[in-house]
Specification:
This protein is an alpha/beta fold. It has one domain: FAD/NAD(P)-binding domain (3-Layer(bba) Sandwich), CATH 3.50.50. The protein contains 13 helices and 18 strands. Strands 4, 5, 12, 13, 14, 15, 16 and 17 form an eight-stranded mixed beta sheet that branches. A five-stranded parallel beta sheet has the order 7-2-1-11-18. GO terms for molecular function: FAD binding; monooxygenase activity. InterPro entries: FAD-bd (IPR002938), FAD/NAD-bd_sf (IPR036188).
């Protein structure tokens, strides 16, 4: 195989999956990740057939099995369930994506656990604490400049550095970041048998959301691993640095501007954890006792504020040796639980395209152009649907989205 090196800006979900896929194909790469280590931001991630297939394609067999065993147990229904504040089911919507595995479906993961799994064996590939600040194209090479004053050269640069991507801003400066105005909090409550016994069954389906008459919205996601994480690691990746994670239920608060609840909400970024918890308590006043009681069980130290931002779908751009994946090109609201799955889909598709080029099956720029065209065709409809104001309507399911029940 000829010498070929891929530079990856960003070591999140998409960047690590791409690196694993390239290494599996025998292609050298280097990942530059700004954070000093794998952080603790974010909790539960919904997984669908697109993301699961990408992991199967990119990961070695033992790490894919570790991902499966540390995924949540299979729910009774793989759907998004919408409730009112009294716990009454208003409707359910199937998850999007290609058909799921019928025997052991892709369900949900703990974000940090998945990143730790994908980091196994990548010690010589991932450079933590190194930020790409700009790039230069020079014929058949791309040079990246890093925040420590050093630089690196490769054949291809992949922007996997998220919604604030410095690579995208240089490559496609006309693509705006859109602040939706929606804010909220992420948090988790330890999922004990006692707590589980009090909760409506719908909260244990694929995903659940409940809304109140004043506009407050809570979204719930259970994480119960199929097997204790430490036990699975000991068998499948002995000695790997993966934290144990006890079962929990993620409780996310959504505050939409203009609603009665939104007009009363304080600045969540200036609020203390206790003040944020008080906002959550206020959101569920008069709600079903189990839903209100769940908020009381939240671990206050896990509450952090979020704002919902997204990108506009970019017009087709000239293909070059610099390309993009995941949130760097199609950051989307979490309405359809598709952000991480789309990044993984991109990673597998790009690894496949670059492998084909390295093996002489097509010219490099042709391979990248085909990857980008496919990504725009498959993921941009998800981005547009996720940004649609009707995204939490159980009957809203655009025809251009892939849905297993109608495939």
């Amino acid at each position: 195989m000829p010498s070929f090196h891929v530079l990856i800006a960003g070591g999140g979900i998409g960047g690590l999956c791409l690196a694993q896929g390239l290494r599996k194909a025998g292609i050298d790469c280097t990942v530059f990740e700004s954070a000093p280590s794998i952080g603790r931001s974010g909790y539960r991630l919904h997984m669908n057939g697109a993301g699961g297939r990408a992991l199967r394609e990119c990961l070695p067999e033992n790490l894919f099995e570790l991902y499966m065993q540390t995924s949540r147990t299979t729910p009774r229904r793989e759907v998004l369930v919408l409730l009112d504040h009294l716990g009454n089911e208003l409707g359910a919507r199937p998850h999007i994506g290609p058909p799921n595995d019928p025997v052991r479906p892709h369900t949900a993961v703990n974000r940090r656990t998945l990143r730790q799994i994908m980091n196994i064996g990548m010690e010589e590939v991932v450079r933590f604490g190194r930020t790409v600040t700009r790039f230069e194209e020079d014929g058949d090479q791309v040079r990246v400049h890093l925040d420590d004053g050093s630089s690196a050269t490769g054949d291809v640069l992949v922007a996997a550095d998220g919604i604030n991507s410095v690579v995208r801003r240089q490559l496609l400066p006309e693509v705006p970041i859109v602040d939706t105005g929606d804010v909220g909090t992420y948090s988790i409550a330890p999922l004990t048998d006692e707590l589980a016994a009090t909760l409506p069954d719908a909260l244990f389906d694929g995903f659940a959301g409940a809304s109140g008459p004043d506009g407050a919205m809570l979204v719930y996601g259970v994480y119960q691993p199929r097997r204790p994480i430490a036990e699975a690691v000991a068998e499948l990746a002995p000695g790997a640095a993966i934290d144990p994670v006890d079962p929990y239920i993620m409780v996310n608060l959504g505050i939409m501007p203009g609603t009665p609840f939104g007009r009363e909400a304080p600045d969540l970024w200036k609020a203390s954890p206790e003040e944020r918890h008080a906002v959550l308590r206020r959101a569920v006043r008069g709600w079903h006792p189990a839903l209100a009681g769940l908020v009381e069980r939240i671990d206050t130290s896990t509450i952090f504020p979020v704002s919902v931002r997204r990108l506009q779908p970019a017009d087709p751009w000239p293909t070059s040796r610099v390309t993009l994946l995941g949130d760097a090109i199609h950051a989307m609201p979490p309405s359809f639980g598709a952000g991480a799955n789309s990044a993984l889909r991109d990673a597998a598709a790009l690894a496949r395209a670059l492998t084909a080029s390295v093996h002489g099956e097509m010219p490099l720029l042709t391979a990248i152009a085909e990857y980008e065209a496919e990504m725009r065709a498959e993921v941009f409809p998800v981005l547009r649907a996720s940004a649609d104001p009707r995204a939490f309507d159980p009957d809203f399911l655009p025809d251009d989205l892939s849905v297993p029940s109608r495939n």
